[in-house]
């Protein structure tokens, strides 16, 4: 399983972001249920957000981004970065089996 850190940079005023946030978060819940997402959340201050996704291939990540209400409504730009976990806290052993 590959790991992807996804940065969402808002490209509209925060009022527009907030208008689309309920639909965005509802969509993210479906990605948690399918096992695609590990965590998500906004930056402080709220100028962007971050997602950690796990997938066999980058194409899966691109496909679920294409269905995100933030993407569909032009709220954010997405930067997808694949990364390799080389170390982790013991409390994450279940996420990174040996």
E-strand count = 4
Calculate the terminal CA-CA distance, rounded to whole Å: 12 Å
Percent of residues in β-strands: 25-35%
Number of helices: 3
Which structural class do the helices and strands define? alpha+beta
Strand order of the largest sheet: 2-3-1-4
Order of helices and strands: EHEEHHE
- Percent range for helical residues? 25-40%
Mean pLDDT: 95
User: What does the main sheet amount to?
Assistant: 4 strands, antiparallel
Task: Name the overall outline.
Answer: globular
Radius of gyration: 14 Å
Spans of 5+ residues with little confidence (pLDDT < 50)? none
Could you explain how this protein is built, in words?
The protein is of the alpha+beta class. The chain is built from 3 helices and 4 strands, in the order βαββααβ. It has helices spanning 14-33, 58-65, 69-72; strands spanning 2-10, 37-42, 48-55, 76-83.
